């Protein structure tokens, strides 16, 4: 087994349910700005941030879509979700932004072991 490397930020909250998605994205951007390799895993309601057709939040809330669009500029190119999480929300990979990679839930434990640091939002 290879040595764990990089930071995995797990996003579990919908874009406008709380500030947690935004805080997770901001954390990922700051880590990447300091040269740390960062990947994002979207689970549960967090998958909603990956939808092409993302609605707006309440007045005064910052939209998460512009931040999602900036990820590649910070070399955050690996976005992940699980097949089971997509099925739970009745979504297809074709409804998601960019090149989101889909994992089977049974692969998640080994996937998580491949990271030296994991943060949940």
From TrEMBL:
InterPro entries: DsrEFH-like, Sulphur_relay_DsrE/F-like, Sulphur_relay_TusC/DsrF. It holds the Pfam family DsrE. It comes from the Bacteria. Belongs to the DsrF/TusC family. This is tRNA 2-thiouridine synthesizing protein C. It comes from Vreelandella songnenensis.
């Amino acid at each position: 087994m290879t040595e764990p490397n990089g930071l995995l930020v797990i996003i579990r909250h919908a874009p406008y349910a709380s500030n947690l998605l935004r805080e997770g994205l901001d954390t990922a951007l700051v880590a990447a700005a300091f040269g740390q390799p960062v990947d994002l895993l979207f689970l549960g309601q967090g998958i909603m941030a990956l939808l092409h057709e993302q609605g707006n939040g309440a007045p005064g809330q910052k939209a998460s879509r512009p931040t999602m669009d900036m990820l590649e500029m910070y070399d955050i190119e690996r976005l992940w979700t699980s097949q089971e999480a997509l099925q739970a929300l009745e979504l297809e990979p074709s409804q998601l932004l960019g090149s989101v990679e889909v994992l089977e839930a049974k692969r998640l434990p080994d996937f998580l072991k491949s990271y030296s640091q994991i943060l949940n939002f």
